[in-house]
Automatic annotation (TrEMBL):
GO cellular component, one term: cytoplasm
UniProt entry keywords in alphabetical sequence: ATP-binding, Cytoplasm, Kinase, Nucleotide-binding, Transferase
Subcellular location: Cytoplasm
Catalytic activity: CMP + ATP = CDP + ADP; dCMP + ATP = dCDP + ADP
Superkingdom in the source lineage: Bacteria
Name this polypeptide is given: Cytidylate kinase
HAMAP family: Cytidyl_kinase_type1 (MF_00238)
Protein backbone atom coordinates (compact mmCIF):
# COMPACT_ATOMS: atom_id res chain seq x y z
CA UNK A 1 0.00 0.00 0.00
CA UNK A 2 1.28 3.47 -0.91
CA UNK A 3 0.01 6.39 1.17
CA UNK A 4 0.64 9.94 -0.09
CA UNK A 5 0.45 12.73 2.48
CA UNK A 6 0.65 16.28 1.15
CA UNK A 7 0.03 19.71 2.62
CA UNK A 8 1.52 23.10 3.44
CA UNK A 9 4.35 23.90 5.87
CA UNK A 10 3.84 22.85 9.48
CA UNK A 11 0.39 21.39 8.78
CA UNK A 12 1.52 18.27 10.65
CA UNK A 13 1.83 16.04 7.59
CA UNK A 14 5.25 14.68 8.63
CA UNK A 15 3.95 13.77 12.09
CA UNK A 16 0.89 12.13 10.56
CA UNK A 17 2.91 10.31 7.90
CA UNK A 18 5.22 8.96 10.62
CA UNK A 19 2.20 7.88 12.66
CA UNK A 20 0.60 6.14 9.68
CA UNK A 21 3.90 4.45 8.84
CA UNK A 22 4.07 3.07 12.40
CA UNK A 23 0.43 2.00 12.40
CA UNK A 24 0.59 0.19 9.05
CA UNK A 25 4.24 -0.89 9.45
CA UNK A 26 5.43 0.86 6.31
CA UNK A 27 8.66 2.77 5.65
CA UNK A 28 8.32 6.57 5.62
CA UNK A 29 10.04 9.23 3.52
CA UNK A 30 9.77 12.92 4.40
CA UNK A 31 10.44 14.32 0.90
CA UNK A 32 10.84 17.87 2.24
CA UNK A 33 14.22 16.71 3.57
CA UNK A 34 15.52 16.32 -0.01
CA UNK A 35 14.68 19.94 -0.85
CA UNK A 36 16.00 21.10 2.51
CA UNK A 37 19.31 19.26 1.93
CA UNK A 38 19.69 20.96 -1.45
CA UNK A 39 18.82 24.33 0.14
CA UNK A 40 21.40 23.77 2.84
CA UNK A 41 24.06 22.83 0.28
CA UNK A 42 23.63 26.17 -1.55
CA UNK A 43 23.07 28.41 1.46
CA UNK A 44 26.29 30.34 0.79
CA UNK A 45 25.19 31.05 -2.80
CA UNK A 46 21.82 32.64 -2.04
CA UNK A 47 21.34 35.80 -4.10
CA UNK A 48 24.31 34.99 -6.33
CA UNK A 49 24.28 34.39 -10.08
CA UNK A 50 25.31 30.75 -9.71
CA UNK A 51 22.54 29.86 -7.20
CA UNK A 52 20.44 27.90 -9.69
CA UNK A 53 23.35 26.01 -11.26
CA UNK A 54 24.71 25.10 -7.79
CA UNK A 55 21.29 23.92 -6.67
CA UNK A 56 20.92 21.65 -9.71
CA UNK A 57 24.40 20.26 -9.09
CA UNK A 58 23.61 19.66 -5.40
CA UNK A 59 20.33 17.91 -6.27
CA UNK A 60 22.09 15.61 -8.73
CA UNK A 61 24.81 14.81 -6.16
CA UNK A 62 22.46 14.27 -3.21
CA UNK A 63 23.30 11.31 -0.97
CA UNK A 64 21.01 9.68 1.64
CA UNK A 65 23.55 10.69 4.33
CA UNK A 66 22.66 14.33 3.56
CA UNK A 67 19.10 13.80 4.82
CA UNK A 68 19.69 13.91 8.59
CA UNK A 69 16.73 16.01 9.87
CA UNK A 70 18.86 17.30 12.74
CA UNK A 71 20.78 19.56 10.32
CA UNK A 72 17.77 20.52 8.21
CA UNK A 73 15.11 21.65 10.66
CA UNK A 74 15.96 25.40 10.79
CA UNK A 75 13.38 27.83 9.43
CA UNK A 76 16.04 29.39 7.17
CA UNK A 77 16.70 26.01 5.56
CA UNK A 78 12.95 25.53 5.01
CA UNK A 79 12.79 28.91 3.24
CA UNK A 80 15.82 28.05 1.09
CA UNK A 81 14.25 24.68 0.28
CA UNK A 82 11.20 26.42 -1.18
CA UNK A 83 13.53 28.58 -3.32
CA UNK A 84 15.40 25.64 -4.83
CA UNK A 85 12.06 23.80 -5.23
CA UNK A 86 10.98 26.19 -8.00
CA UNK A 87 13.89 25.06 -10.20
CA UNK A 88 12.57 22.46 -12.63
CA UNK A 89 15.92 20.67 -13.00
CA UNK A 90 16.15 20.30 -9.21
CA UNK A 91 12.72 18.66 -9.09
CA UNK A 92 13.70 16.41 -11.99
CA UNK A 93 16.90 15.35 -10.22
CA UNK A 94 15.00 14.49 -7.02
CA UNK A 95 12.14 12.65 -8.73
CA UNK A 96 13.63 9.16 -9.12
CA UNK A 97 14.77 8.81 -5.50
CA UNK A 98 11.23 9.55 -4.30
CA UNK A 99 9.65 7.34 -6.96
CA UNK A 100 11.93 4.40 -6.09
CA UNK A 101 11.06 4.79 -2.41
CA UNK A 102 7.34 4.79 -3.22
CA UNK A 103 7.61 1.65 -5.32
CA UNK A 104 9.45 -0.43 -2.72
CA UNK A 105 8.03 -3.85 -2.29
CA UNK A 106 5.45 -3.79 0.48
CA UNK A 107 4.55 -0.14 0.12
CA UNK A 108 5.49 3.15 1.74
CA UNK A 109 4.26 6.41 3.19
CA UNK A 110 5.64 9.59 1.63
CA UNK A 111 4.90 13.13 2.71
CA UNK A 112 5.54 16.34 0.82
CA UNK A 113 3.80 18.70 -1.58
CA UNK A 114 3.41 16.77 -4.83
CA UNK A 115 3.30 13.11 -3.79
CA UNK A 116 -0.31 12.52 -4.84
CA UNK A 117 -0.04 14.63 -8.00
CA UNK A 118 3.46 14.01 -9.43
CA UNK A 119 5.57 11.48 -7.52
CA UNK A 120 2.93 8.84 -7.03
CA UNK A 121 -0.34 9.67 -8.77
CA UNK A 122 -1.33 6.01 -8.44
CA UNK A 123 -1.01 6.00 -4.62
CA UNK A 124 -3.65 3.85 -2.95
CA UNK A 125 -4.62 6.57 -0.49
CA UNK A 126 -3.99 10.31 -0.76
CA UNK A 127 -4.35 12.68 2.16
CA UNK A 128 -4.08 16.46 1.88
CA UNK A 129 -3.49 17.93 5.31
CA UNK A 130 -4.45 21.51 6.08
CA UNK A 131 -4.51 23.73 9.17
CA UNK A 132 -4.90 27.49 9.36
CA UNK A 133 -1.70 29.53 9.14
CA UNK A 134 -1.98 30.81 12.71
CA UNK A 135 -2.22 27.28 14.15
CA UNK A 136 0.70 26.19 11.97
CA UNK A 137 2.87 29.10 13.12
CA UNK A 138 2.00 28.29 16.75
CA UNK A 139 3.00 24.66 16.26
CA UNK A 140 6.27 25.69 14.63
CA UNK A 141 6.97 28.15 17.47
CA UNK A 142 6.39 25.39 20.05
CA UNK A 143 8.61 23.03 18.02
CA UNK A 144 11.51 25.52 18.02
CA UNK A 145 10.94 26.48 21.66
CA UNK A 146 11.17 22.78 22.63
CA UNK A 147 14.58 22.76 20.93
CA UNK A 148 15.60 25.77 23.01
CA UNK A 149 15.49 28.07 19.97
CA UNK A 150 14.08 31.55 20.47
CA UNK A 151 11.63 32.56 17.74
CA UNK A 152 9.65 35.65 16.94
CA UNK A 153 6.05 34.54 16.31
CA UNK A 154 5.27 37.29 13.77
CA UNK A 155 8.39 36.46 11.72
CA UNK A 156 7.50 32.78 11.78
CA UNK A 157 3.92 33.49 10.70
CA UNK A 158 5.05 35.78 7.86
CA UNK A 159 7.63 33.25 6.64
CA UNK A 160 5.06 30.43 6.65
CA UNK A 161 2.69 32.56 4.55
CA UNK A 162 5.51 33.53 2.15
CA UNK A 163 6.55 29.92 1.78
CA UNK A 164 2.95 28.80 1.15
CA UNK A 165 2.57 31.48 -1.53
CA UNK A 166 5.86 30.51 -3.23
CA UNK A 167 4.95 26.81 -3.13
CA UNK A 168 1.44 27.39 -4.50
CA UNK A 169 2.81 29.57 -7.32
CA UNK A 170 5.61 27.13 -8.17
CA UNK A 171 5.21 26.58 -11.93
CA UNK A 172 7.21 23.33 -11.69
CA UNK A 173 5.44 21.95 -8.62
CA UNK A 174 2.26 19.97 -8.18
CA UNK A 175 1.22 21.55 -4.92
CA UNK A 176 -2.53 21.11 -4.91
CA UNK A 177 -4.82 18.33 -3.71
CA UNK A 178 -5.16 15.53 -6.26
CA UNK A 179 -8.74 15.03 -7.46
CA UNK A 180 -8.94 11.83 -5.40
CA UNK A 181 -7.23 13.25 -2.28
CA UNK A 182 -8.98 13.31 1.10
CA UNK A 183 -8.78 16.68 2.80
CA UNK A 184 -8.03 16.58 6.55
CA UNK A 185 -8.17 19.84 8.48
CA UNK A 186 -6.14 19.44 11.69
CA UNK A 187 -6.59 23.00 13.01
CA UNK A 188 -8.81 21.77 15.87
CA UNK A 189 -7.23 18.31 16.24
CA UNK A 190 -4.35 17.32 18.48
CA UNK A 191 -1.77 14.84 17.18
CA UNK A 192 -3.62 11.73 18.43
CA UNK A 193 -7.00 12.90 17.10
CA UNK A 194 -5.43 13.77 13.72
CA UNK A 195 -3.87 10.30 13.50
CA UNK A 196 -7.19 8.63 14.41
CA UNK A 197 -8.92 10.63 11.67
CA UNK A 198 -6.22 9.73 9.13
CA UNK A 199 -6.37 6.02 10.00
CA UNK A 200 -10.18 6.12 9.64
CA UNK A 201 -9.80 7.58 6.13
CA UNK A 202 -7.14 5.04 5.10
CA UNK A 203 -9.16 2.10 6.49
CA UNK A 204 -12.31 3.31 4.72
CA UNK A 205 -10.49 3.65 1.38
CA UNK A 206 -8.93 0.19 1.74
CA UNK A 207 -12.29 -1.37 2.68
CA UNK A 208 -14.00 0.35 -0.27
CA UNK A 209 -11.31 -0.83 -2.69
CA UNK A 210 -11.59 -4.36 -1.31
CA UNK A 211 -15.34 -4.20 -1.99
CA UNK A 212 -16.50 -4.35 1.65
N1 LIG B 1 -2.38 18.07 15.13
C1 LIG B 1 -1.36 18.68 15.74
N2 LIG B 1 -1.59 19.43 16.82
C2 LIG B 1 -0.57 20.07 17.44
N3 LIG B 1 0.72 20.02 17.05
C3 LIG B 1 1.00 19.29 15.97
C4 LIG B 1 -0.02 18.58 15.26
N4 LIG B 1 0.58 17.93 14.23
C5 LIG B 1 1.88 18.22 14.29
N5 LIG B 1 2.15 19.03 15.34
C6 LIG B 1 3.43 19.58 15.71
O1 LIG B 1 3.69 20.66 14.80
C7 LIG B 1 5.07 20.69 14.42
C8 LIG B 1 5.15 20.59 12.89
O2 LIG B 1 4.68 19.31 12.53
P1 LIG B 1 5.26 18.52 11.29
O3 LIG B 1 6.74 18.61 11.27
O4 LIG B 1 4.63 17.18 11.30
O5 LIG B 1 4.67 19.40 10.11
P2 LIG B 1 5.00 19.31 8.56
O6 LIG B 1 3.75 19.64 7.85
O7 LIG B 1 5.63 17.99 8.25
O8 LIG B 1 6.06 20.47 8.44
P3 LIG B 1 7.08 20.76 7.24
O9 LIG B 1 6.45 20.28 6.00
O10 LIG B 1 7.21 22.22 7.19
O11 LIG B 1 8.33 20.02 7.59
C9 LIG B 1 5.74 19.54 15.15
O12 LIG B 1 6.35 20.05 16.32
C10 LIG B 1 4.59 18.61 15.52
O13 LIG B 1 4.82 17.87 16.71
N1 LIG C 1 7.55 17.03 -2.20
C1 LIG C 1 8.03 18.23 -1.86
C2 LIG C 1 8.53 18.48 -0.59
C3 LIG C 1 9.01 19.73 -0.29
N2 LIG C 1 9.04 20.69 -1.24
C4 LIG C 1 9.63 22.00 -0.98
O1 LIG C 1 10.53 21.95 0.13
C5 LIG C 1 10.17 22.91 1.12
C6 LIG C 1 10.46 22.32 2.48
O2 LIG C 1 9.56 21.26 2.71
P1 LIG C 1 9.06 20.85 4.18
O3 LIG C 1 7.95 19.86 3.93
O4 LIG C 1 10.21 20.23 4.87
O5 LIG C 1 8.59 22.08 4.86
C7 LIG C 1 8.70 23.23 0.85
O6 LIG C 1 8.34 24.54 1.26
C8 LIG C 1 8.59 23.07 -0.66
O7 LIG C 1 9.00 24.24 -1.31
C9 LIG C 1 8.53 20.43 -2.48
O8 LIG C 1 8.51 21.34 -3.36
N3 LIG C 1 8.03 19.21 -2.79
Amino acid sequence: MIIAVDGPAASGKGTLAGGLAGYYRLPHLDTGLLYRAVGRAVEAHEGQADFEARAIEAARDLHPDDLDPEFLVAQKIGNLASKVAVIGEVRKALFQYQRNFALRHGGAVLDGRDIGTVICPEADVKLFIIADAHARAERRARQFAARGQAVDFETLYTQIEERDARDRANPNGGFYPAADAHLLDTTQLDIEAALRAAVAIVDAVIARKAGH
